[in-house]
Fold:
Amino acid sequence: MSNQTTVLIASRDTALVPALQRARPDIRALALASAPLPDRLDEAPLCFVEWLLPDHSGIALVRRLREARATRDAQITMVLEQDDPEDQRRALRAGADDYLIGPLTLERLTERLDTGAAIAARPPHSSLIMGDLQVDLAAHQLRVKGRPVALRPNEYSLLVHFMENPNQLFTRRALIARLGKSDDVVDERTVDVWVGRLRRSLETQGAPCPLRTVRSLGYVFDEP
Structure:
């Protein structure tokens, strides 16, 4: 199994993937096009998908990524053409985890990758336990009443943050910063989508969600 991070990129800039591979040999960079998606990957990849692509739409590709076995749990970032709230909502509805406003450049890619790596590498406790929820931080695995539950990367990061900091109010802007996306995510209501997905993931497993909305302010994770 490779210890490289896999990054899938769908961009009109054909030089972007080889440039990233040269700049970051620790990364396995692959171009996404209309060809079949990878059948198998060792781990959930990071995906960057431009809104407009030469022969198909970025929205359609995001839907394909969510349906494919190898990429269904990927962290998908949609690269928007402009700061348009309706485009932001469409990207999230299609299955993107977040978005950034283009253009997608080598500098912005490496900055986003370095920020995510720094967050993931912070020294954690071995596990977090709260009520029926148990998170194995080494394995990046949530269990509810002993049953494994798959979470997307943003949902997982939010859950860990809240479990490490219960009974505290966090604004949407603070949560965006916690996920390392302060410079890219414009609409703070995107956090509501992340929180909604986390709530549904827990409730589907029969676990009461301790996340409480504080109107006009943010969210609190109530300790049982």
Summary: The domain at 127-221 is CATH 1.10.10.10 (Arc Repressor Mutant, subunit A).
